[in-house]
Write a structure and sequence with these properties.
The structure holds two protein chains of two kinds. By secondary structure, chain A is of the alpha/beta class. Chain A is 30% helix and 15% strand. The chains are: A alpha/beta, B alpha/beta. Chains A and B meet through helix 9, helix 11 and helix 13 of A and helix 14, helix 15, helix 18 and helix 19 of B.
């Protein structure tokens, strides 16, 4: 336990779905330990504190900032920079902040294409004036500003210096608790560490590994799952072998293949390429390769923005 | 850690390549690279004064990493490594590159561009050298003893060779007697000498009095160091090369080989008679028996399926030496051997599945082995071919070739020896019975060996008839008890109905029944037809992918006796070479697993072509991969598979690959888009070498990065190359079925195909990535590929990555 001086925590939400915020609450009664030793000084989803209040606090006055979400627009980038400046320790919290996650799949397109889809093409949209978000708009009352929507989604670490990572969509609760314990104890690991495990999801998976052969690619509804055998051996692509573990293979225990939210293994730069290398190496029949219809959606669901190529080349 | 000090030695090949490359510019460039403490230029550095320069610099501790730009990298690599080792530096801290064949010669028309490429090559070598780490030698103890499985021609030959060389040899034969298939064959072609001689030692000092050619007067069993275990089979193989523990199960013989004097009293009193399988069931034998005329061991055996044991026990009563023990049990023996030779031979295919020939239904349709027993003067018919249906002499004999072979329904391959066997048997019959009417129905007569064609001519001269055609059916006429062979004579274009007393099927030769089980136990491969697969048919014909395990004789493919002998000698030499020092010394250029990161996905053991990766239990149902240092060949296929980067090659770390990618692409100096070619160290690099040696031209924008095998390449390396500025990526490996590491090239191909699909999804033209499968003599194809790739990439326009 800390002395009378309480720690200052901040939570922020950039381009993400909000699930990470819920995950913070999923620690249940552990939150009581946290508030005993820490004050939450900034948490837009729960507490009404304005950006200007953060701007006004001295640099490095926040002890730990848990930042979830990717960097999709200029506001998020601004807040990332601001919170970096104000925080002693910055934690990339969740897949979006760490690897871009599903938000990062926006890198298959650019602003123009995304706007076109979102503001013109979707069946529920009626937009005869073809209005799209502008960064500034003059109205009688003055000039309005909106954040700039970027072409490319970036991860937190591609934007500012990050101290620790805790990936997952959302991060697994036991790992959040461990991370908090470590932080509260003051025994911080080396910079750049992840609070997930070094081993992959495959190591935690209860399913049986037999001949380790992939003979076909199927969607999950196309197989008659025996609830025992490794999904890959049944033809369903599972990202477990290439995904950083720590989730106790929750999805697999619920009979759903891993889609890779833990991000790349610690010694791997590009999660998708690592799984593709393994997949292509153990495939007995070259025809299986042709059955993969969506390589990025399959192998880079959570890591496109943090991959070597980062985004699709647009023409 | 000691500070890295790189010495760079630039050979201008006697000034030759200095006419193209600007050595002054290169020297000045190298001097600016951080970590380089010494740069020297000379005529050559792999021998003589040049090599002494390197040695002196190492000895005086001016440098601790050596980069040599030399003209003959394959030779100089070895020579420099040896010299620096003697000077006290680990020999694996040397990096050699070839500025002549990989730069100056192919780019001689664009010397400026060549010089810029040379800078990039040197930078890559230096950056790699900085990351090189010492690799130690390991010593594994090796037992100087060999297990030979199979007591036919091949096994006996190999066993004899090894025993004579002083190795402790265990010869294990599953039958009660040695000799194998050949012992039943009566005579061998083309010499027509009797087959039994295979059991005699050829040049044994201890039994010089024995005839070189006859088992009858031989002393095979008396060869020192040779232990013969008949009636025995392998049930378990453990351990590693140099130190296998093999469990052998010996069925009871019920007769003590050491006491039995082969007096025959037991067979006289034995009341049980059964069909004699050795004699193709054409005669009967007793439940206690010995194969005639003479075999090893010269001791009786009891057929446990037929014997009444204690109910009868008459043999026990009469045996003068009390050699018979009816209570003998199956026993297990564990052998500790350094290497294993598989010589399990082949067998005749059972032709009863081929319905149109009615084998097994018409008793006068027989196989070659059955005919051979008839033609044996000691055999069941005293050397006379008969009709098994009525025992009458067979006067009209028709041979049918390619039964179950060269036929996609059964076995597609040619068994290679059946034509000669038919010719042998036909001439033997004609010699003994000139009036016999002998016809051979063939598709092609294949007499490819030395003297074999004369053998065919002799058969024709003796009146053997040849009909080109594969019989469509064998019909039995019950009225005359005659067989009618229906065949279309393709040369005369007419249908023939050949009447025959006896039809002999030249059946396919197929792998021995236990081949699959044995291959599994030993961890070695079978080919598509089920024969034991050699490491490389051309250069390592009797080695397998597992060190210390060798194969020879008919187990590899059907062979005649002379070829089998040769093969057996080869296997013996290989086994001896492997064990002769009593230890196996190996540079640890192997893969190593960091078990802290191994995610138990269990992919690498499946992809390893050498069975070198096992799963080590880590408790709680968890496993981690472990590489056997002695089995690993260092290809890196496992590294190219591992989805978590837990495996690395000691001799090519991921950081070294990345550093080279960046360096090679950091300088262009040409007007063309950069292309990176990953090449394997074997055929791929050889093709690059030969294109340079043959002075073929290709543009200097193409840069080559050598890896041990293309199987090590991961998709991320390809992406890294694009990220580092490559506009095109080539992967140059061996032919898929000629890969020096078996599966690497094929796995690389699959990764490239998958990566192409990925590139497409990334909006990058998949044509920017191509795999090429080349061999040494295809230097022209490499040059062509490099040119085509460059043109293609130029046409596609610049690749702009975000």
């Amino acid at each position: 336990m800390r002395g009378p001086q309480k720690l200052k925590f901040a939570f922020y939400w950039a381009a993400s779905c909000g699930g990470c915020e819920i995950a913070v609450l999923d620690i249940n009664e552990k939150i009581l330990d946290v508030v005993q030793v820490a004050d939450i000084v900034f948490w837009p989803v729960a507490i009404d504190i304005k950006y200007k209040d953060v701007e006004a606090t001295p640099d490095k006055s926040i002890d730990v900032c848990f930042f979830n979400g990717a960097i999709r627009n200029s506001e998020q980038e601004y807040m990332a920079r601001l919170l970096r400046q104000k925080s002693k320790v910055l934690v990339a919290f969740g897949s979006c902040a760490c690897d871009g996650s599903v938000v990062g799949l926006g890198n298959l397109w650019n602003r123009e294409k995304i706007f076109e889809r979102a503001y013109f093409e979707t069946p529920s949209t009626r937009n005869p004036e073809r209005t799209t978000p502008q960064t500034s708009l003059k109205v009688p009352q003055g000039e309005l500003e909106l954040p700039e929507f970027y072409d490319t989604v970036k991860t937190l670490a591609q934007t500012v210096d990050v101290d620790y990572f805790i990936s997952g969509c959302p991060p697994p609760v036991p790992r959040i608790i461990e991370a908090l314990d470590v932080i509260l104890s003051g025994r911080l690991p080396p910079k750049g560490s992840s609070f997930l495990l070094n081993k992959s999801v495959c190591d935690e998976c209860p399913r049986e590994k037999k001949d380790r052969k992939i003979t076909q690619v199927k969607r999950i509804y196309e197989i008659d799952d025996d609830f025992k055998t490794c999904f890959l051996e049944q033809g369903v692509i599972c990202m477990g072998p290439a995904t950083r573990g720590g989730c106790s293979a929750q999805c697999l225990k619920a009979n759903i293949p891993c889609t890779g939210c833990g991000g790349p293994a610690p010694r791997v730069e590009d999660q998708g390429a690592a799984m593709i290398s393994a997949f292509a190496s153990i495939t007995a029949d070259p025809k299986v390769i042709e059955q993969v219809v969506d390589p990025i959606g399959t192998f880079y669901k959570y890591s496109l923005a943090n991959s070597i190529l980062r985004r699709r080349v647009m023409r | 850690m000691e500070e890295v000090k790189v010495g760079v030695f630039l050979s201008d090949c006697g000034g030759q390549i200095a006419k193209i490359l600007d050595f002054e510019a290169l020297t000045n460039f190298v001097k600016t690279v951080p970590g380089v403490t010494l740069v020297a230029r000379g005529s050559e550095f792999w021998r003589g004064q040049g090599l002494q320069t390197i040695v002196d610099a190492v000895k005086t501790k001016k440098i601790n990493r050596v980069v040599v730009a030399e003209a003959v990298p394959k030779i100089s690599e070895v020579a420099v490594a040896k010299a620096v080792e003697a000077a006290g530096l680990n020999p694996h801290l040397v990096e050699v590159l070839d500025l002549k064949d990989h730069c100056a010669w192919p780019h001689r028309d664009t010397p400026k561009e060549a010089t810029e490429k040379a800078k990039a090559m040197l930078l890559a070598a230096i950056e790699k050298a900085k990351l090189l780490e010492p690799i130690e030698k390991a010593e594994f103890p090796a037992v100087k003893s060999v297990l030979v499985i199979g007591g036919g021609i091949a096994g006996m030959q190999a066993a004899e060779d090894l025993a004579d060389m002083g190795f402790q040899v265990y010869l294990v034969e599953k039958e009660p007697f040695l000799g194998g298939l050949a012992a039943k064959a009566v005579r061998f072609f083309p010499t027509d000498d009797c087959a039994i001689c295979i059991q005699s030692p050829k040049d044994l000092a201890a039994v010089t009095q024995t005839s070189r050619k006859c088992v009858y007067r031989s002393g095979f069993s008396e060869i020192p160091n040779l232990n013969i275990l008949t009636n025995a089979k392998i049930v378990k193989v453990e351990g590693s090369p140099g130190n296998f523990r093999v469990t052998v199960e010996r069925k009871p013989r019920y007769v003590d080989e050491k006491k039995c004097v082969a007096c025959d009293l037991c067979t006289i009193v034995c009341p049980v008679e059964v069909l004699d399988e050795y004699n193709a069931k054409l005669s009967k034998r007793k439940a206690i028996y010995i194969n005639k005329p003479l075999v090893y061991p010269p001791a009786y055996v009891i057929d446990a399926k037929a014997c009444k044991f204690h109910e009868c026990a008459k043999c026990v009563e009469v045996c003068p030496t009390k050699a018979i023990n009816l209570d003998q049990k199956t026993e297990q023996v564990t052998l500790n051997v350094g290497s294993i030779i598989v010589a399990t031979g082949f067998r005749e295919y059972d032709p009863s599945v081929i319905k149109e020939y009615h084998y097994g239904e018409y008793s006068d349709v027989v196989t070659h082995l059955e005919l051979a027993r008839m033609l044996d003067a000691f055999g069941p018919t005293g050397g006379v071919p008969i009709k098994p249906s009525d025992g009458q002499p067979a006067k009209r004999i028709v041979f049918v070739q390619c039964v179950g072979s060269r036929d996609r329904r059964w076995n597609p391959y040619c068994s290679s020896i059946c034509c000669m066997i038919s010719l042998k048997h036909a001439t033997m019959i004609k010699e003994a019975f000139p009036d016999a009417d002998v016809t051979i129905c063939y598709i092609d007569i294949r007499t490819t060996g030395r003297e074999h064609e004369y053998y065919y001519e002799r058969a024709r001269d003796m009146g053997v008839k040849f009909v080109k055609g594969r019989p469509s059916e064998i019909v039995h006429d019950p009225a005359t008890n005659t067989l009618i062979v229906e065949v279309e004579d393709e040369l005369l274009r007419r249908l023939l109905e050949l009447e025959a007393d006896l039809v002999v099927l030249a059946t396919a030769m197929v792998p021995s029944e236990d081949a699959k089980e044995l291959a599994q136990m030993l961890g070695i491969e079978l080919d598509q037809d089920g024969f034991f697969k050699e490491y490389n048919a051309k250069l390592r014909p009797t080695e397998t992918k597992r060190r210390g395990i060798f194969i020879c004789g008919g187990a590899v493919f059907p062979k005649d006796a002379p070829t089998t002998s040769l093969h057996a000698h080869s296997a013996a030499v290989k086994a001896a070479k492997f064990l002769m020092n009593g230890k196996i010394v190996k540079d640890l250029k192997v893969a190593v697993v960091n078990q802290d990161y191994c995610g138990n996905c269990q992919f690498c053991p499946v992809t390893c072509p050498y069975g070198a990766i096992t799963l080590e239990p880590k408790g709680d149902g968890h496993f981690a991969a472990k590489v056997s240092e002695i089995l690993c060949e260092g290809c890196g296929v496992c590294v190219g598979t591992c989805p978590v980067g837990a495996i690395e090659l000691r001799h090519l770390k991921p950081s070294q690959i990345s550093a080279q990618i960046k360096a090679l692409l950091s300088i262009n100096g040409t007007s063309k888009p950069l292309v990176l070619a990953f090449s394997c160290s074997e055929c791929g690099h050889a093709a690059v070498d030969s294109s340079g040696m043959a002075m073929m031209n290709y543009p200097a924008n193409v840069r080559v990065l050598r890896v041990p095998c293309t199987g090590v390449i991961q998709v991320q390396h390809i992406l890294e190359a694009f990220r580092a500025g490559a506009q095109g990526v080539m992967v140059v490996g061996c032919k898929p079925d000629g890969c020096h590491y078996e599966v690497g090239s094929q796995k690389a191909k699959q990764k490239v195909e998958m990566a192409k699909r990925l590139l497409q999804a990334y909006g990058i033209e998949p044509e920017r990535l191509e795999m090429f499968n080349l061999v040494f003599i295809e230097g022209d194809k490499f040059a062509e590929a490099a040119k085509t790739m460059t043109e293609k990439v130029e046409k596609l326009g610049p690749l702009q990555l975000a």
